[in-house]
TrEMBL record:
Pfam families: Asp_Glu_race
Superkingdom of source: Eukaryota
One Gene Ontology term of the molecular function aspect: amino-acid racemase activity
Similarity field: Belongs to the HyuE racemase family.
Record protein name field: Asp/Glu/hydantoin racemase
InterPro entries assigned to the protein according to its UniProt record, in alphabetical order: Asp/Glu/hydantoin_racemase, Hydantoin_racemase-like, Iso_Racemase_Enz_sf
Organism: Microdochium bolleyi
Lineage: Eukaryota, Fungi, Dikarya, Ascomycota, Pezizomycotina
Gene3D superfamilies per record: 3.40.50.12500
Length: 284
């Protein structure tokens, strides 16, 4: 069988994991996924971590750890992954999330279905996080810089103060930068709103959310050199318009609506995992 015959016509099953216990967050994630122009052969399901084991909002290192334990401790979920119910998984928490590698390891355990074929047992679950996928997508969207000019940049707008250091270090590690040299000419940095994930759609007045998000966005734009802004929280789904409005206030409509990419990390994650699954199939 040729490579094309092996790959062509297969359906793709993706699981998006919301590692916090917020159903509202999962609903927002579903809305983003439904807006994607995915082929009919691609099925996307959403999993919400169990409460109270997982927090309703992941806002610090303790939240990351608790949510990871809650997901890994869900034996029904792990069994489904071990039995090849999905080809790929997206971790929908904008963080350096240990679930990205721990879930792949857990899924590599022996499935419980005795009748699985040898081919099925060899399947490798493809896992990525929305953090990692958004970086790769942002880099691919940066326009080339004219000779002799400073490079165009990408940056992250996110929630609370914890994430500034966490994500800055995460970007450097993901891109293979040394601990001694964290400088990156194309990275405009992480800019926070001071809110938590749940505040974007409940608890905080919309006008205050807009004000804070605009302030963070204008800092991220770095004098108009930033051409890709990542919404660094799954809870920011649907807030692209505020970011573009902030850009328009500073640099005009042409830049805000004709040049600036506002990247939803969940959307990037689903699109990235679909490509990863296709490439993984070429190895079989």
């Amino acid at each position: 069988m040729s490579v094309l015959e092996h790959v062509r016509g297969q359906s793709t099953r993706i699981l998006v994991i919301n590692p916090n216990s917020s159903r509202a967050m999962s609903k927002g994630t579903k809305h983003v996924i439904d807006s994607l122009d995915l082929p009919h052969s691609t099925q996307v399901d959403i999993y919400t971590a169990p409460s109270p084991a997982s927090p309703g909002s992941i806002d610090d290192a303790e939240g990351i750890e608790a949510s990871s334990k809650a997901v890994l401790g869900d034996s029904a979920l792990i069994s489904r992954l071990q039995n090849n119910e999905y080809d790929g998984v997206v971790i929908a928490c904008y963080s350096v999330d240990p679930l990205v590698h721990e879930l792949a390891d857990a899924a590599a355990g022996q499935g419980s279905t005795a009748q699985m074929t040898t081919t099925e047992k060899k399947k490798k679950l493809v896992v990525t996080g929305i953090f990692e996928a958004s970086i790769l997508t942002a880099l691919s969207l940066l326009p080339p810089s004219p000779h002799g000019e400073q490079p165009r940049k990408w940056g992250i707008v996110t929630t609370g103060a914890f994430w500034e250091e966490h994500l800055t270090h995460g970007v450097a590690d993901f891109l293979g930068q040394s601990q001694q040299s964290r400088a990156n000419a194309k990275f405009a940095g992480v800019h926070t709103t001071g809110l938590n994930a749940g505040d974007f759609h409940a608890g905080v007045p919309p006008e205050e959310v807009e004000r804070r998000l605009k302030v963070a966005t204008k800092k991220c734009l770095d004098g108009g050199r930033t051409h890709v802004v990542i919404m660094g929280c799954a809870g920011m789904a649907g807030l692209e318009g505020i970011i573009r409005a902030a850009a328009a206030e500073e640099y005009g409509d042409e830049f805000a609506y004709g040049q600036l990419h506002v990247l939803d990390a969940v959307r990037a994650g689903v699109m990235q995992i679909e490509q990863m699954i296709k490439h993984q199939r070429l190895l079989r």
